[in-house]
Specification:
With 286 residues, the protein is mainly α. Helices cover 67% and strands 0% of the residues. It is built from 11 helices and no strands.
Length: 286
């Protein structure tokens, strides 16, 4: 009895061409992030634009009118700026405090950032805690504590106490900003400079400082911006001295003079000019 064995041939796979290209469907959700970002930017910029526009409004009297009555530049004239009693002195005090406190806080904050990143010492954790506590604490707490300190030691309040107060809260911001720049710093660069004969000061001036300079400038600009518009801490420790924010707080009780918008516009434009010049300088060095 014979058995017939049959083999099943493999089935041939049909030859097909490449899969047709399907374009992804354009979903409306991809517009959510751009629209949201645009609305946030619009919300942040509108108050500044209103201030700039109405600084050119020909209101016809010495109070701001939010009804457009014509274009004028008369409020930018030196005579118009000095017409408001106490305005020029208040702006001068604000600039003095901002410049001096920024310079001191930048030096001390940079040195503190170098110490926190480079070295291990007893109390390092406490120093970190105090820095971030300074940033997170409400301004009214800082202002009241400084006021009690000055009263306890009998320090007369004035321009000097304002500078001390501004240096106090600016150091933390500068230290945190410079520290972020130092975290990715390659210590081998300093070691190479010292192997080539450079001493500690030359190494810092020619190697370390140029590398961390963008962080130092960023911390200084942040300190200057925080100092020139501070009101709460300054109000506690100013005494009879008036800065620009304190002067504005006093005059708005009877009406906002257009010079407030003019000074605000000039300060804003000055900050923009400093930021642009810093970016240009960094690109040229790169």
């Amino acid at each position: 009895m014979s058995t017939t064995v049959t083999r099943e041939l493999p089935r041939e796979t049909p030859v097909t061409g490449p899969a047709p290209h399907r374009e992804p469907k354009k979903r409306w959700t991809r517009f959510i992030l751009p629209v949201y970002s645009g609305l946030v930017m619009f919300y942040l910029v509108v108050p500044i634009l209103v201030m700039i526009v109405f600084s050119f409004n020909d209101s016809g009297y010495k109070k701001v009118s939010f009804r457009w009555q014509g274009f004028t530049t008369k409020w930018y004239a030196p005579s118009a700026l000095t017409a408001q009693p106490g305005l020029s002195n208040a702006v001068k005090n604000s600039l003095i405090v901002a410049v001096i406190s920024t310079l001191i806080a930048t030096v001390l904050g940079t040195l503190m950032a170098l110490a926190l990143v480079r070295y291990r010492f007893r109390g390092k954790g406490t120093t970190d805690f105090v820095l971030f506590m300074n940033i997170s604490a409400p301004e009214i707490v800082l202002g009241a504590s400084l006021l009690s300190l000055f009263i306890t030691f009998g320090v007369p309040r004035g321009l000097m106490t304002i500078i001390i107060a501004h240096v106090m809260f600016n150091i933390a911001y500068v230290a945190v900003t410079v520290r972020a720049r130092l975290i990715g710093f390659d210590l081998a660069l300093e070691e190479a400079a010292q192997d080539l004969g450079a001493n500690a000061w030359t190494t810092f001036r020619r190697v370390t400082l140029p590398i961390i300079f963008p962080g130092v400038i960023a911390g200084a600009l942040l300190a200057f911006a925080l100092s020139i518009d501070d009101f709460v801490i300054t109000n506690f420790n100013a005494g009879a001295t008036q800065t620009f924010p304190l002067w504005v707080y006093g005059v708005v009780k009877v009406g906002i003079p257009p010079q407030v918008f003019v000074i605000g516009t000039l300060i804003f434009m000055g900050g923009i000019a400093l930021a642009i010049s810093t970016v240009v300088l960094q690109r040229r060095k790169a």
